[in-house]
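PROTOCOL LOG
Step 1. Enter all chains and additional molecules of the complex.
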Amino acid sequence: MSDAASRVLSGKSWEDFCDALKAAGETILRSETPASELDRAEGWRYLSRLTRAALERMVEFADPDFPVFYALSHETIKIGSDNPDNTYRNCIVDGTKEYRVTGKRGTAPVMTFGTKAERYAIDGTQASTGELDSKHMDIAPDGSFEIIVSAKPHNGNWLKLAPDSSMLIVRETHFDRKIEVPAEMTIQQIGGPAKPSPLTAEQIDTGLASAAAFVNGTAKAFAEWMAIFRKTPNDWTNLPQSTWTNIGGDPNIFYLWAYWTLKPDEALVIETSVPECEYWNCQNNNYWDESLDYRYLPIHINKHTAKYNADGTVTVVIAAKDPGVGNYLDTAGHDNGCAMWRWVKSKDHPIPKCRVAKLADLR
Amino acid sequence: MTDQTAADRMMSGQAWDEFCDALKEAGKIVQRPEVPNDPFNKALGYRFLTALLRGGLESTMHFADAQFPGFFRLADETKKLLNDNPDNYYQNCVIDGRFDYRIYGHRGTVNWFSLGTKGSSDDVAVMVDTGYIDSRNMTFNPDGSFEIIASATKKPGNWLPMAPTSRSIVVRQTFGDRKTEKIADIQIACLNPQKPNNNATPEDVERGLKGAVGFVRNIGNMTIAWEELYRKHINQLPSDDQERCQRAGGDAAIHYYQSYWKLKGDECMFVTLDDIPECQTWNLQLSNYWMESLEYRFFKVSVNKHTAHYEPDGSVKIVISERDPGPKYPNWLNTLGHGEGGMLGRYVGAKVFPPEMKSKVVKLSELP
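Step 2. Run joint prediction.
Step 3. Record the structure below.
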C-alpha cells in the first residue's frame, strides 16, 4: 500500500490538515497585527474563508484533465485587495495540455485572460506565461467567442501557456457591476480523456496538505506586506511594480497600497490628477487586505463612478463618516486598514497625495 | 478570575485552536467501524468532510447574518450530502423571521422552483416547515421578473410565509433537463435591518466556527446512521419513513424511497417501474457510501421522468451496474467503480405512492 493510502486509511492526512490549519492561526496573532476585537474577529473569519478557497482550489477543482472555472475571490472569499469591480474566474491547467475556452461576452467593459506558472521554488515568483485582452479578440456579433489555450501558437484567439503553467485567471472589470452582466464561459481539454478517474488516496492526501499550505502561505504573505505598508501609515508604499507582477499581479495595472490608521474624527484625504487610462479605481480594505463589504457599503470608486473636481482632479475621503466632500469611502467601523489604488493601462502613474484632516475641517 | 468570554477566546486564538481540534476529532467519523475499510471510501469520506466544512462555514459564518442575507449553496456540484438530487439546483439563505425580506429575480426556464422557510430547533437534524411557495402558484411579470415578500405577517402578491422562529430559506430549482434549462436568478434583501453594517463580533466568530464543526460532525454521523438503516434492505427500494425525511429538511411535495445498493462486478440491480403514479416528476439516483450523489456532471448516474426511455406499455426498466448492459437497456445508471453506496427514488407531486420501486439483483449475463 502506498504511503498516501495508509495515511488516508489511518486518518493521519486529516489530522495533519487540522494541525496545519491550527498552526496557520499564528499569523493572526503576530505581534504587529491590530488587537481590536473587530480586526481579530475578521482575522479568524479570513482564515475560515481561506480554508474554503484552499479546499476548492486544491481538492475540488484540482484536476487539469477536467478543469472547471471557480472563483478564488468573490463576495465572501477575499484575498489580497480583491477588486470589488471584478468578476474573477480561476481554473487549473497543465501547460503540456491544450484547452478550449468557449463563451459569450457579457457587458463588462474589460475582460482579460492570463496564465500563470508557480515558480516560487525557482525564483520566488508567480510568473505570467500568457496574456490575452478581449479588445484583441475575435468575438462574433452575437458575443460568442472561442479561445485556444496552448503552448503551441494557434490561429485565432490564442492564450499562451508555458510548459510549467498551472493556472488560468479571467478578470472582468465592471464600471457598474449592478447593471453589467459578466460573460459566460466554460473550459475543456482538447483531446483529453472522456471521463475523469475516481478519487484516489494520493489526491486527497496531497489536496489536504496543499490546502493547509495555501491557507498558511496566503495569510502569511499578505500579513508580511501589511507589516511593510504600516511603516508609512496614511501614505502609499511605493514599491517597484515588478514586486506585484512577480507574485501574480496583472502587468497592465500600476498598484499602490496605503496602510491607514484614523481616529473617529479624522479622514484620510487623497487627491490626484487623473491620467489618460482605460480604468482606475480606489478601494478600501481591512487589515487582512480583504475588500470591505461592497455589497452594502460605499467602499470603492472607479473611473466611471467617481465625482471629478472642476479641474479634472479627483478627491477621495476615507473616514468613519461622510463629510460630504469628495468621493467618500466608508471605514465600516474599522480604525485601521489599507487602501489600494489602481491605474490600468495608463499613460502616466501619478502618486496621489495623502493627508490626514479633521472631519470637522472638511465640512 | 472572571469567566472567560467569547471575546477572550477569540482574542487569544483559543476559539480557532478549539475549532481545529474539534475538526480533527470529527475526522474520526471516517474511522467508524461501519465505514467500508478501503482507501477509496476513506478518501471519499475525508473529501466529504471538507465539503461539509465548506458548506458549514458558509451557512454558519460567511452567510450567517440574517440582516445582510445572501443565497449560498449548501449542496452543489462539489458539495454533496444526504442524497442531494442531481436534478436540483439548491440554494440556501440564513434569515430571521422577525425581519421582512424582498426576494426578487427572473424566472429562467427551469422546469419549476420552490422556496420554503424552515424553523430551527435544538436538534440540528430537525427542521420545521414554516412556509412554502413555488413557481406554479406565483405571479410573474411578462418579462419573467418577479418579486416575493417573505414575512411573518401576510402580504399581498407573492408571499412566502415565515414564523418569527424561521431561520432559513431553502430553494429547490428542479430541472427536467439540467443541460438545457436555465435556472431562475434569485436575489434577496432585508427590508428592515437594525444595524449599520455586518461586521463580525467575537460571538459571531465563536458561534460560526463551532457551528461549522457541528455541521460536519452531525451530518457525518447522521449519514452513517442512515446508511445503517438502509443497509437493512440492500438492493431494494421500499418507501422510506417519510417523517424522518421531512424532519431532515425534505421537500413536502416529495415521497422518498431511500436505500442502499451493493453489487459485484458481474451483477446488476434491475428496477422495473410499472406503477408510476401521476406526478410532476420522478427520479432515481445513485450515491456513494457518504450519500453524495455520484458525479452527474460527467456520467449518467440518475434518470428522471424526462430523460427516461419508456417501454411501449409505459413502464420503465432501469439497470444499475458497473458495466454497460448494452443498447437494450438505455436507462443504465453507472456505479462508477463504487461497489456500494446510497440510492434514492423520488415521486414528486404525486397523490398515490406505490409501496416500493420494484427491483431484483441478477447477473448481467442473465438480464431478460
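Step 4. Note key features.
The longest strand of chain B covers residues 166-174.
Residues 66-196 of chain B form a domain with the Jelly Rolls fold (CATH 2.60.120.1600).
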